[in-house]
Specification:
- The chain is built from three helices and three strands.
- The chain is α+β, with helices and mostly antiparallel strands and about 150 residues long.
- About 20% of the residues are buried.
């Protein structure tokens, strides 16, 4: 006895009411996926800038602890050593460079006076990269600071 062969199944034919469901589902899910994707990009950029600020403020504070420093000398040190590469977002005309502050306004030597603590602080106002993420990430203030005591020179 030979096995019976069945005829191949006819191609799937969608019911009449479900022909546009894929387009509707895509229209509902795509904005959420795009927001998620651009949010990940924004958060990665924010983390990169925060890490750069922390690294720069540590280097500036170390130099200020080793030498007599004022607000202008620490600013010059930061600019001369290019400690903040690509932090300012050049694509955005509203973007401002990071603001550096030294408190008190000058460091002192430990030989002449008791070691005086000082603080170096960098503050940056973040602008969102895309219009889609502006409600969540625009005008976010990133800052990094280090408190140190002057080293004996």
């Amino acid at each position: 006895m030979q096995p019976t062969r069945h005829a191949p199944a006819p191609p799937y034919d969608a019911p009449q009411g479900s022909r546009g469901s894929v387009a509707v589902e895509l229209a509902l899910v795509l904005p959420v996926l795009l927001l998620f994707l651009f949010g990940i990009i924004e958060i990665a950029n924010i983390m990169r800038i925060q890490f750069t600020l922390e690294s720069a403020v540590t280097a500036i504070a170390h130099d200020a602890a080793m030498h007599y420093s004022t607000q202008s000398t620490v600013q010059s040190y930061m600019d001369a050593n290019n400690l903040l590469p690509m932090v300012t977002q050049t694509t955005n005309e509203e973007a401002t460079p990071p603001v550096l502050s030294l408190t008190p306004s000058a460091t002192s030597t430990c030989k002449a006076t008791p070691c005086t603590p000082f603080e170096v602080k960098l503050t940056y106002k973040y602008k969102a990269l895309t219009d889609l993420t502006k409600p969540f990430f625009d005008n976010l203030v990133l800052s990094a600071s280090v408190k140190k005591i002057s080293e004996p020179w």
